[in-house]
Amino acid sequence: MPLGIKIAWSFLGVLVAIAYGLVIAGIIRKVMARIQGRIGPPVWQQFIDLGKVIFQRTATRHGWMFYLAPIFRAGGGIGLYLLIPVVIGVPALSNFSFNGDLLLVMYFIFFGSLGMALGAADSGHPHSPIGISRGLSQMTAYELPFALAMVALAAQVHSFSIHDIIMAQQGGILHWNLFANPLAAIAAFIAFLGMNMYAPFNIVGAPQEIPVGPPTEYNSIFLSLMMSGRAILAVAKIVLYMDLFLGGAHSILAAFVKTIIIYFWSVFVGAVFPRFRTEQAVRFFLGWPTVAGIAGVLLVLIR
Amino acid sequence: MDNKPKSTLPVLVEPPKGAQPHGPLGHGYFLGETKRQQALPMRESLAKIKNWFRANSLWVMAYGTGCGGIELRPLTTARFDFERFGMAMRPTPRQSNVIIISGYLAVKSLKRVIRAYEQMPSPKWVVGLGSCTINGGMYWDSYNTINRLDLYVPVDIYIAGCMPRPEALLAGFGELMKMIKRGEANGWNHYLENFDWYKENQKKVINDWNMPDYNW
Amino acid sequence: MMHILDEIRERFGAEWQNEQRPDLLQIGVQAKTIVPLLTWLKAHTPFVQLTHLSAVDWIEDGEFQLTYLLTDPKAHVSLMVCTRIDREQAEAESIHALWPQAVTYEQEINEMFGIHFPGSPRQGVPFILEGWNDIPPMRRDFDTVAYMNSHHPSRPGREHTDPRAYIGKVFGERGYLHDDD
Amino acid sequence: MVNPILLIGVPLAVAFLLPLVDMLGRRTARAVHLLTLAFELFVAGEWLVQFLHGAAAVNIITGGWAPPIGINLRLGPLEAALVCLAALTGIGSALYLAHHEEVGSLRGLVIQLLLVTGAIGLIMTRDVFNTFVFLEISGIGTYSIVIFGKERSALEAGFKYIALGGAASTFFLLGVAFLYKITGTLNLDDMIHKLPMAVVAGTGTVLLLLMVGIMSELKLFPLNGPAIDLYDGVEPGVMALIVGTTVNALFFVFWKISALYTGPAWAAMFASVGMTTFLVCNVLAIRQTRVRRMLGYSSSAQIGLLVFLVPFVKSGEVALSAIALLLVNHTFAKAGLLWLAGTHGGEKIKEWKGAFSDSLALRIALATFVLAMTGLPPFPGFWGKWQALVGLAQHGHGWWIGAVLVGSLFEFVYYFGWLKEALTPAETVPRGAVGSPLSEVFGSLLYAGLAIALGAKVLMQVWGGFKTPAIFLGAAGFVLLFIRALPERFKAALTLVAVAWVAWGVFAGARACPLWDIRGFFLVMVLFGAFVISVAGLGIPAERGSFWGLFLILVGSIIGILYSSSLLGFFAGWELMTWSSYLLVSQGRHGPKAGYLYMLFAAAAGLLVLGGMMVAESAGVTTLAALVSLSGGVALAAWGLLAVGFAVKVASWGAHIWAPGAYAESPDLFTPFLSGVISKIPIFGLAAVVARIAAPSVATAISSISVAHILGWVGGLTAFGMTLLAVFQEDMKKLLAYSSVGQVGYVVLAMALLTPLGWTAALYYAVNHFLFKGLLFLAIAGVIYRTGVRTFADTGGLIKRMPLSFIAVLIGIIALAGVPPLSGFAGKWLLYEALMDKGWLFLTAFMMLASVMAFLYCFRLIHSIFLGQLKDKDRNVREAPWPLLLAELLMVIPILALSVRPQLLIEPLQHLVTGVFGVPGVRFASAATMTTHFGYFNAAAMMALVVVLFLVLLFILLTVGPKPTKVKQLDIVYAAEVPPSPEELQYAWAFYRPYERAFAPLLKARVTAFWHGVVDVVEGVAEAGRRFYTGNAQTYVLYSVLFILVLAAFGLAR
Amino acid sequence: MMAGNELYVATGLIVILIGFATVLVKRNLLKIVIGFSLIDSGTNLLIVALGFYPGRTAPIVNNPDMLANRASLLVNTAKVVDPVPQALVLTAIVIGVGVTALMLAYVVRLYATGKTLDVRQFGRMKW
Lengths: 303, 216, 181, 1054, 127
Known about the structure:
The complex is a heteropentamer of chains A (303), B (216), C (181), D (1054) and E (127). Chain C is α+β, with helices and mostly antiparallel strands. Chain C has five helices and five strands, in the order αββαβββααα. In chain C, strand 1 and strand 2 form a beta hairpin. Chain C starts with a helix and ends in a 10-residue tail after the last helix. Chain E has helices at residues 6-25, 29-50, 64-68, 70-76, 83-114. Chain E contains five helices and no strands. In chain E, helix 1 (6-25) runs antiparallel to helix 2 (29-50) and helix 2 (29-50) packs antiparallel against helix 5. At the D-E interface, helix 5, helix 6, helix 9 and helix 40 of D face helix 1, helix 2 and helix 5 of E.
């Protein structure tokens, strides 16, 4: 496929992914409302919010790092999405995954976080670094079970290539890593909760405590970039999980179903559990999820 | 302190003659619009679309001043659920569109209200909740509460009562949304246009004006 | 509990005493005995807690009354020690050495009544009021309505009624709160 | 040639004539005294030159009787050298004591001459009884010169000394008498000849008596109590004289007489007593608080070491030159230190703060002596010790080597403890050489000069002449040390030129030969690092005048390490690097204390490395290349010792406690080099030394996987533990310090993989760490230079004032954190691929955790300094000086280049790794895509993706939406309140408090507690041990009697 | 040991031991000095005794011929006691006197500083 067409497809893919991310965020709000016995906002509420934010007439900024941070944030999300193959067999949706393997993807997740942290901290608002401190702390904690699961998968397939990992799962639902290495899957899916920063791991934003955490000072167009970045980051993460544990997707429909399933895992957990404090979250991740991850690696070693 | 305004004022306070648009209006936009935006074709239609977005995504500043603060909380509950109108509480003024002055307002609080209001990005709206914001209510002769909110910030809509129930508040929001869609809720423009007048009023009651002026 | 009042009278002298309720005793003393009295109370009686310190403006007498409310936290009995000071030279001894929390009360009284407590920290530091430049608002010679009219203009059209007259008009001479209702 | 008999006759005669001369005036007497000593020096020196040209030793027969009956003297090369030393020390002390009220008087002059005469007699005589006579002459000289002291302490010491001396001379005399009875002769040579033939019961006892007499005079443990008091109590100039004359002479007497003692029992006895003295005295010296008393213990220990070596020299196992070098070293350093101690006048170690801060020469002399005493290169003691150890090693005396090394470690403890005090700036006006006349310091300066010259000569024999880069830079640095008048920036420029010159030479010459072996790789790093530091030095002036000189010496020493092909050359460079970096670290504000800890661990590391090399030497290996030939247990032992030594030097977990202080407290200019370059030299050691052993032979000796695996986990634990600790630091340099140690842990881990990919990862990572950590430390240096603070709580918001520094730090932390698209990611990628390839799965996950934790401190670093609220005090801070920015740019350019094309570095590494393993580490699927067995990575495409995304989004941000208004600094959402001040808004202190709570169990200072425990034990032993010296004369006499009995009980009294 | 000089040797040894005992046990500095003198004397006695052969004459050569003829001198030495120890002792006595004098000088000075002769009072420098 020529590079130009590839880029065009990717651009389209990014837009779709953002839209999809906004939709599932809307679904979450709706679901949460229903769980709480409310009617809840319409599913497309996120689009309205995004539009409203873009149409804001004034914007304020602090330093120039504050200005650039949303770019890092959105760039991180989009870049991450572009490094993950979405639908196998469709070159248009395999994005730029030839650039690097799972390791690159794992590290690219941090790109956006770092940009976000830098910009937020530049606003000079004390809540921003407090939120970042919590977020980064939590990030390192879920990294251990996540890394163990990734190591287990890679060792199993003897490759860090996401494509190879997907291919190894073909040929039946029981070949999915979710069932092939359930322990690693458990570790990874618990880590996923932390990665998504929904309850019980939403101490970062912690409304009512440190208003909205890092983006306290963000507004209008900056906020819109952040919202888009967050949406596509969420999509990229679930697509990654789909590729790693649910055997990837052969069609857009399958991708839709599988990603919804993965996403609802964290939605439902978040709806039921109260919030962890930072140190509780850290200790939680370093406890049983890590044990599960170690067991997952051992499982590979024993085989 | 005898230069109190003589004229009877509607909900939106008419500025005195000769009030000039203030600073930031000069550098880039008038009434919040850039010249490029003003020159856009279909500007009216576009404005309607924008207003529709704005009306359906009202983020409320989570800020309670008087006894009415307690009336805001039920809005988020299952009984009233203002989220179905796209509204949400935001804890930071930078991301809020509406500020509700919920009841009596001490001079001391007024300072904070002004500051929060000025930190909100345009367009932004002020809801006066309860009698105290209209004419002082039962605190009319208190030495430290203001009697008329609209002398200090532009109020887009008042909700009368002492206290109004959440239903009334919701109805008020409904009205506000309609006004926004119609393009009538322009208190923030009024504030900018009569900035000096507002500042003068504010400084009359706030004696230790230690608020930095760097915002404007 | 009356014996405490008696003892106070014997030791420090009292102008009047009263048992308002079984758990609320009152005694009026000379201003100059306040600090020794409170010191003694804190050291030798169960009244070890300063619950409140307030002031009343007796403008007709040209005096301020200071009320120190002490509590026996175990028996839940309170003792009001009242004293009067001259309104023109409104000064009272500070008791922040006995109870640190008295600093806040004294700061507030200083702000609201203009009573000065020499030696107390934070005297003159604004507490509730910001930028107040009139006479202290809790003094009864402060005309709040006049202040309102000059500072916080009312919305035209508002009617003001005298509450007493209004209640009389609606409920009759005796008001709406009387025993046989 | 002058008749050697005059060596004794002239001073003796002058001693008696001096009172007459004195009638002409005291000046004349002094002149005559000095002339006499000069005469001695001249005569002995002339003879020495003759002997060195091959002349035979001369025997002098006195009284016309042939040796068996008459007394004869001998002058050979050793004697001549010792006489030279005695005369030199005599001159030095005479000058030093010239203004002393008592010792400088006429009587003093006579006794000084008497001491010299006695010593020369002891050295030259070959008659046993004559030895006794000279012994007593020396003794009486000592006693009388001591009694001059007015202080009670001197008198007490003298009395104890005289008491023990009385007992000793009795033993000696009895021994002589009985020996005469047994052999019928008093001539030593005759006696040596006849004694083995005499089969008389009790010979052993007699010999024992004689030996105890000598040992007691030699001040060996346990007979050294009074001698140590003497050091403490007597005028130091006198003690210096005694060290240079009597002590040396006595040791020579021991040397001569030890010929009588044949058989393994005596050899074992000498070795044991010597080693016991060495160990015990060194341990006890640790707890000393008084300088001269400590020097006394040290002297005993040194003599113990010499005595220990004697039997091995006699048996031919150890070269004689070892003892000679050690003795000369001891004389120079100890006499010099005593003179300095006298000049300074501080009796307690604590009084030495800021010593000689007004005199560069004396400071250099002090450092020289301390370095010489602890056996560091290039001073003679180092070479002596090396020769001795090699000799021991080659004859299988492994445990003795261990003992020598342990004892040497204690030596480091107290000598550098002392130096630490001396380097610490004084709070009050320092004591020092203010107004000391040149005569008083002449001796110390002379001996310092001689020690340096002698050492440098040997070093040049090992490393080559001035044309070699190492020696050139070292010499240039040495010269630069003495240039005080130049501004520091100019010195930096000179350094720059020197480094550039060497680099030009190296690389111009390297075009011909393949440079890309591993040392060339490190050479580039060192020279580049030195170049960058010099550039930075143009912007930030060094705080101390000696900075650039030491820096050049350091660079030279590292190049020496890299160039060396022999173990000796390597180790000499290693120790040179250790002390030069130590002195540089000590230049920081709290540097001496941190430097002391650094030195102790570096010394321990050095001794471990030395031990490993000795193991190799025991198998006859003397060059690095020959290490390959090691096999079996020897290989394993060498591997272990060397690996542990290098691991200590990289501050692996467990030995990491030195690193934070040293990194944080060293001068800001030096820290980038310390962290970037010096921390890589142990890696070079691992690669160039350890790996040579490891690859072929350890694998067969023991399952190498497990050994390497242990090293791997050590590296991993270091990476994790140090990262965790770095997260909680409140001091920016300490944070980076912990980070550095942790990052080197990754490198160690990757080295331990022993796979091509692992080595590629390790070396790539090493270079990368050098670049980004150097960059970060440079940028931080700029911040500290401009703001003057180092704690996070005191900075903030500097992005507004120092945007370029911010960008530098931003690039640094992105590279450090390994976030794509910068070069750090390739390092992480290689590491994980290598780990997975090896199958170390848990370590892979563990390292992923550790490297994510690095985010925490990375963010903290950049946030607390540059982001957040600008403090009012920093409103006028300027951007870092341009040379510093230039230096940062020099580091940034390679980082960016590597980010786009990691091949720039990986291609050469491919050659290098192929050279070691035979196969390359990674493959290149296309020009830009690297592949391994596990994955693939295309840096250029990655970079392109990021850049395009950035530009697109920036375009969107600039065109869509309203033009943002820039608000002022304090205009933040602060609950609608007006923020009071920037200080209260900066969230910087205890930044990760919740994280700290979560990890609380891991954060207990266990390692520190362990080392505290070690220190407590050693100090406890030293404290308890030194009670042995009760201070009572009678006890000391009793010890001498008991000593005989104990030795007799060991069966020596046959 | 040679026969015939046991008594002198033993006496010498005993005197030495008495001297050591004095040095080790007595606390008075003067007595310690006396002890050292005893040791010296004992040593001297012992050395002289070592060179003593019963029945030989004193090693005094008064025949000038003998002095002239070194060879005969060597032969004739067999008839006299060993002269060397005597020579040694002469030297040793001289040295011993010197040392004793110095010791006494120390005692005087020490007494001047401490006003005591107890050896235990002069142990301030220790450890």
